[in-house]
Amino acid sequence: NAGVTQTPKFQVLKTGQSMTLQCAQDMNHEYMSWYRQDPGMGLRLIHYSVGAGITDQGEVPNGYNVSRSTTEDFPLRLLSAAPSQTSVYFCASSDPSGGNREQYFGPGTRLTVT
Amino acid sequence: AQSVAQPEDQVNVAEGNPLTVKCTYSVSGNPYLFWYVQYPNRGLQFLLKYITGDNLVKGSYGFEAEFNKSQTSFHLKKPSALVSDSALYFCAVRDIRDKIIFGKGTRLHILP
After folding, report:
1. Which of B35, B42, B47, B70 has its CA 20 to 30 A from that of B107?
2. From the list B97, B98, B103, which residue is nearest A42 (CB)?
3. Do the Cβ atoms of A99 and B51 come within 8 Å?
4. Tens digit of each residue's pLDDT (9 = 90 or more) over A42-75
5. Are residues A105 and B103, on separate chains, in Cβ contact within 8 Å?
6. What is the 3-state secondary structure (H, E, C) of A36-88?
C-alpha cells in the first residue's frame, strides 16, 4: 500500500491564482480530512469527509473548496490564493469503523503564495 | 464546540527523567482522544489513542497516556526520556460527528 499520497510536494503561487492540491489513499478509508499547519497555530482542520459524496467544514474553511466523488480521492481547491494561505497542508485518512480510528497522514504540501 | 488545549509550548526534560506533556479537552459526548508525534520535516505519526476501557493506554516508543474524565485531561507520559524523543507532539480529539481537532502542539526537548 502507498498509504496517503499528496501532490505536489512544493508549490509557489501568485496572489489570485487558483490550484488544486491532490490527495489519494489506497486503504479504502471512508474518512478523509485536510489540515493546514502554521507555526504556533498547530494543525487546523479545513474540511473533512466521512464518505464519498459527503463533505463538511472544519475550523478554517474559507477560501477552500473540496469534493469527494470517490472513496480514494479528496482534492483541496484554492479558489483565489492569498498570502495568508501560505502554509503546509496535510491530508489524512482513517477507517472510522471498529476501533481503528487513528488517522494516517500524507507527507504534506508546502505552499507559498507571493 | 470541541476544543483541545496544550498549555505548554515547550517542555524540557533531562535524558533518563520521566516526562509529561499535558492535554485537556472539551467535547460533547464520549471523547476519542489521540496523541501524534511529528519529527522535523516529517508528517505526523500516530502514537496512541483512547476510545474506551482502561484509563491508562500504552502506545508506540514506550509512551503512555492517562485519560481522566473528571479533569477532562489526557496527558502523555514516558517513564524515562530519550534524546530521540525530541519532537513536536500533538493531542487530538474526535467528536460524535467525526470532526477531529488538534491542539497547537508541544515541542519536547530532551537534554543529554
Report:
1. B70
2. B103
3. yes
4. 899 999 999 999 999 999 999 999 999 999 999 9
5. no
6. EEECCCEEEEEEEEEECCEEEECCCCCCEEECCCCCCECCEEECCCCHHHCEE
